[in-house]
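Quick review question:
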C-alpha cells in the first residue's frame, strides 16, 4: 500500500469539503443522527460518525484535510508495525489471539458482503479475500493499545465500518485500498465506546443490565413475570446486544439506526441501553421461561423505527402503545366492515322480499 500522490489527495479533499458542508455544527450532525429513517445515505452517515466520534473536527476549514491525512498516517503506522509482515499482520499479535481473529473474520465475512451488496458497492468481489485487510486493521488496534487486544466482536465493528468506508471512497474517487485506513479510524472509537473490557471483566455488576430489568418490569410486566419465574435477567440474554450494540440482531439499515442513537448517547450509554433493550423486549412475545432466552436472542422481525420511538417514550417516563394495539385496531375495523356489509346485504334482501 503506497501513499497516494499529493495531487490525488488535494482533489479528494475538495470533494470531501463539499460533502461536509451540511455539517456546519454538531447540532447538524445530531439532527441527522436523530432522523428516524431506515433510508439514510451511507456516505453522509459515514461522515456523521467520523464527526460525532471526533475522528475529525467540526471545523470546516480543517476537517476535510484531517480526513485525507488519515490515509498517509495509517500507511506509515502499519508499515512501522508490520514491516516485512505487512501481508501477514497477525504474526505481530499474541499467538493465542490469532486463531480467534481468523475464525471470527471468516464467520463474519458474510456481514461485509451483504452490506456491500445492500449499498451497491461496486465490484466488491474483486476486493481481497476478506482476510488480510481486517486482520491488519484489527492487529493495528491491538498493537496501538494493550487495552484493545482482540476480543470477539471487534470484527463486526470493522466490517460495518469498512463497508461504509468503501462506499465513501467510491463517491470521492479514492482507490478502494485506502478504505481500510478510514475504516480503522472509525472502528477504534466505536470499540472504545462499547467498553468491551469493562463489561466482560464485571458482567454481573453492569448497571445497564439492571436498568434493562427495571424497564422490562415497568413496560413489559407479563414478560417480566415469565423471566422472573425462570430466574432470568438481562445478563442471561442481552450480553450480545450490549457488546455489539444490536448489530447482530438487525439488517444493516436497522442496525445503523440503532448505532445512530448509541452515538447520540455516548455520555449515558448504560442508561440508554436499558431503555432501548426494553424497547426490543417489548416487541417479542415471551410466554414461557423455558424458551424465553431463545426467543429473545433469535427474534428478527423488528420494527426499528418503533424501537426508537418507544425508547424515547421510556426515557421520558411515558406510556407505550400496547404491543398488539395495531393488530387489534385492524381486527376491530375488519369486524365493523364485515358487520356493515352483512347489514347492507340483509337490508337489501328485506327490501326485495317486501316487494313480493
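Suggested answer, residue by residue:
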Amino acid at each position: 500500500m503506497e501513499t497516494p500522490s499529493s495531487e490525488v489527495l488535494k482533489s479528494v479533499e475538495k470533494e470531501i469539503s463539499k460533502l461536509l458542508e451540511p455539517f456546519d455544527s454538531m447540532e447538524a450532525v445530531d439532527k441527522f443522527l436523530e432522523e428516524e429513517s431506515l433510508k439514510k445515505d451511507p456516505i453522509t452517515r459515514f461522515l456523521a460518525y467520523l464527526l460525532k466520534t471526533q475522528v475529525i473536527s467540526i471545523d470546516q476549514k480543517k476537517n476535510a484535510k484531517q480526513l485525507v491525512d488519515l490515509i498517509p498516517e495509517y500507511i506509515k503506522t502499519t508499515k512501522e508495525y508490520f514491516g516485512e509482515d505487512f501481508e501477514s499482520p497477525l504474526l505481530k499479535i499474541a499467538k493465542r489471539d490469532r486463531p480467534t481473529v481468523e475464525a471470527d473474520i471468516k464467520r463474519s465475512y458474510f456481514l461485509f458482503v451483504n452490506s456491500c451488496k445492500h449499498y451497491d458497492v461496486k465490484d466488491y468481489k474483486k476486493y481481497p479475500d476478506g482476510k488480510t485487510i481486517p486482520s491488519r486493521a484489527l492487529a493495528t488496534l491491538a498493537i496501538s493499545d494493550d487495552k484493545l487486544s482482540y476480543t470477539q466482536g471487534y470484527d463486526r465493528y470493522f466490517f460495518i465500518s469498512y463497508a461504509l468506508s468503501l462506499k465513501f471512497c467510491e463517491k470521492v474517487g479514492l482507490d478502494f485500498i485506502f478504505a481500510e485506513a478510514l475504516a480503522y479510524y472509525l472502528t477504534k472509537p466505536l470499540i472504545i465506546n462499547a467498553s468491551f473490557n469493562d463489561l466482560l471483566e464485571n458482567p454481573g455488576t453492569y448497571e445497564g443490565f439492571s436498568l434493562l430489568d427495571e424497564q422490562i418490569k415497568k413496560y413489559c410486566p407479563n414478560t417480566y413475570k415469565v423471566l422472573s419465574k425462570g430466574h432470568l435477567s438481562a445478563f442471561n440474554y442481552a450480553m450480545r446486544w450490549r457488546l455489539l450494540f444490536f448489530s447482530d440482531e438487525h439488517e444493516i439499515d436497522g442496525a445503523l439506526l440503532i448505532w445512530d442513537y448509541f452515538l447520540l448517547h455516548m455520555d449515558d450509554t448504560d442508561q440508554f441501553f436499558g431503555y432501548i433493550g426494553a424497547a426490543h423486549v417489548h416487541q417479542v412475545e415471551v410466554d414461557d421461561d423455558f424458551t424465553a432466552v431463545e426467543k429473545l436472542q433469535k427474534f428478527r422481525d423488528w420494527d426499528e423505527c418503533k424501537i426508537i420511538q418507544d425508547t424515547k417514550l421510556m426515557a421520558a417516563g411515558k406510556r407505550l402503545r400496547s404491543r398488539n394495539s395495531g393488530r387489534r385496531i385492524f381486527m376491530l375495523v375488519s369486524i365493523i366492515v364485515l358487520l356493515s356489509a352483512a347489514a347492507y346485504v340483509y337490508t337489501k334482501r328485506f327490501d326485495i322480499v317486501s316487494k313480493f
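Why it works: Residues 147 and 192 are 9 Å apart (CA to CA). The first helix runs from residue 6 to 20.
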